[in-house]
Amino acid sequence: MSHVDERTRALQAPSSAVIVASTSNPVDDLRRERAKASFNARELEALLHGGADMVHLRRRIADVMTSQDVFSKRGKYFLERDELYKSTLAKYLALPKAVTSMKEKDPIQVARIMREFIDEPGGLDLHLGMFIPTIQGQGDEEQRKYWIPKCVKLECIGTYAQTELGHGTYLRGLETTATYDESSEEFIIHSPTLTSTKWWPGGLGKTSTHAVVMARLFTKGKDHGVHPFIVQIRENKNHEPLPGCTIGDIGNKMGYNAVDNGFLRFDHVRVPRRAMLMGHSKVEADGTYIPAPVAKVSYGTMVFIRSDIVMNAALFMKKAVTIAIRYNLVRRQSNVHPNSGKECQVIDYQHSQRTLFPILAKAFAFHCTSDFMRRMYFEFQKKSRKDQDFSALPELHATSSGLKAYCSWETKDAIEACRLTCGGHGYMALAGFGTTFASYAPNVTYEGDNNVLCLQTARYLLKAYRKMSSGGESLPSALSYLHGSDSQSQLGQGASLRDENAIVDAYAHRAWRLVTDAARNAGNMSPDDTMREHMVSWIKAAKAHCAFVIMNTFVQEYSDVHQYVKAETIAVLHRLVILHGLCGMDDTMGEFLEDGYIDANQAAGIREEIFRLLAEIRPDAAALVDSFGLHDYFLNSALGAKDGDVYRRLYEQVQAAPFNQSHQPPGYAELLKPKLSKGTFGVSKL
Fold first, then answer.
1. Among 87, 139, 420, 491, which residue carries the largest CB count within 10 Å?
2. Domain-by-domain residue ranges, the chain?
3. Which residues bind FAD (predicted)?
4. Was 471 annotated as part of a binding site?
5. Domain 129-292 belongs to what architecture?
């Protein structure tokens, strides 16, 4: 019998020498916590997921996936990169059959949920998340009919090749060229410099056969800017690179290593004229260039991706805070309390609550914001396709840019904050924080530096301010705060500290002040000049605008759900709305104190109100994370499983670690044995 078998047998045996009963049972602790709830968690879960039918569907999907070996996550945290890549790819390739087996009316929805549950980005991620959407959004009808069926059947696997070794966020700086040859009706795709090498596209390193390549279009000697082209880069039969294509993997990253991020260079690769996606701009056979009806209409696909990133921000924040709160509810750490005879639950330390409960509230706020972003995008898509109405594009582009940056920053920091509340056990791979952070962190640098995306929002804010100041067109509702604000907040004075509308007014005031100050400092400077000269001020203004949009959306969503849920659920949602608002103010109080909008007494009152809210939310902590409806299969965390059986799960899972399959460590024979074999120590010798 191996030593692993011995450990397992010892774990199962009731021997006090192996496992001593603790003063508390974590399973019982979590059960008691759920019993304290003031509201029905299932009602809130149904609200968040769009109805009880959707909750039921998600549970059915989880049951299907956990019953099939191909979807198993057992031992995932101990896999080497090759094994992780292969395991993840196998899961993605098993999706079509699993989706079909569900026999649901909306297979695309089922596939989306299954991808969410897999929770591991892989070689097919950009095929599904960027290659197909780009063809759908920027191809013409003929191109969509030709390519989409091939994509769905995996007759081709695509990636999205935009970022280059020398350029990320600044699209106008991309160097890859697509020069039209009228004589052959072909484009010549070329990488003229080292820095024009495509770098980072997921799935490029090993998986993809095709790529949407963003390249500078040249016709008749004129540069028309960056456009998308579908280029085959590998042979379907043997997966070898096609002539003129130099391809490879960029190596291990800090994480995210199931994805084969790659590099790609072109040496005068020829593709047909129809390889250019022509849903908006076109090149005729004679080389005549026909521009898109709206210059930035191609941003639509990127806006969709950004809205997806905002949605993922909510999901990853929910995941991290669920694991952390469940563990904090069962973890006991202190001297034994004289009344209970037990150590104190970590969640009962005020600092843990001040860390975790605002993240919990923010997860709800981001959930509402992601819904708002999706509605905004699909409304634009409907109008642009049906009526050729692109008027909403500037606001959509600016909002998605800012929210992508703001939400990804906040979520990355929240995951780490959640880990820290879990102490040493939170650092274990089995806790799930490591892969969660590593999988999410790249969102912060998608499209390059988030600060540059904030400046895109800032340009929109400056333009809107100048139009308003000159008596121009009316402002969108999200910018109505630019008309002005009261000089003094009514919070804690004329209005209750729990008046959500007064809190929204405070967020609006801050955004108004920061935008106004930055715009006045800019004077008559061009947008480019003021973004360089006053960059920090404009980034701060863009962040304030995003914080206002999130707060305002949260309050609107809260106001709209009163008719759908019971009073108890409304009450707990109201606490979350207020906590999110007040903590956001407390964490950046200097921005409210700076112009006297909030005074010292109000600031102190806000802080005290936060502590009261933490105490009120405390009994509902377990039920609130339950309401997210995150299945154990998705969480894949020894600390965050729904039953709370933390310690047994940790002990059992480490037994399967490859490092534990032998008592002798790697290199024992040549490194340790020659030294240790010379000794004859034993207890009897001491």
1. 491
2. 129-292, 306-448, 451-478+488-618
3. 163, 202
4. no
5. Beta Barrel (2.40)
Is residue 321 within 8 A of residue 635, CB to CB? The reply is: no
Task: Give the largest Cα separation in the chain, rounded.
Answer: 94
β pairing state of 177-181 and 210-219: parallel
Tens of pLDDT, residues 572-631: 999 999 999 999 999 999 999 999 999 999 999 999 999 999 999 999 999 999 999 999
Q: If DSSP codes are grouped into helix, strand and coil, which group holds residue 552?
A: helix
> What distance in Å separates the CA atoms of residue 37 and residue 620, rounded to the nearest whole number?
5
Tokens representing 64? 């299907």
Q: Is 195 annotated as a binding residue?
A: no
Q: Do 640 and 323 touch, CB atoms closer than 8 A? A: yes
Residue 470's CB is within 10 A of a number of other CB atoms, namely 8
Q: Are 41 and 573 in contact (CB under 8 A)?
A: no
- Domain 451-478+488-618: which topology? Butyryl-CoA Dehydrogenase, subunit A; domain 3 (1.20.140)
Say how many C-beta atoms besides its own lie within 10 A of residue 546's C-beta: 24
447 catalytically annotated: yes
- Which of 410, 447, 557, 609 is an active site residue? 447
For residues 535 and 468, what is the distance between their CA atoms, to the nearest angstrom? 22
Q: Which one, of 508, 506, 512, 496, lies nearest residue 609 by Cα?
A: 496
Three-state DSSP state, 75 = coil
Across the chain, which has 686 residues, the per-10-residue mean pLDDT values are: 44 40 78 96 96 96 96 94 95 94 92 94 92 92 95 94 88 93 97 97 96 97 96 96 97 92 98 95 95 73 82 96 98 82 92 98 97 89 80 89 96 98 97 95 87 95 93 85 90 93 97 96 94 97 98 97 94 98 98 96 97 98 98 97 96 92 92 83 54
Write out the CATH class of domain 306-448. mainly alpha
CB count, 10 Å around CB of 522?
A: 20
pLDDT, one tens digit per residue, over 459-469 is: 999 999 999 99
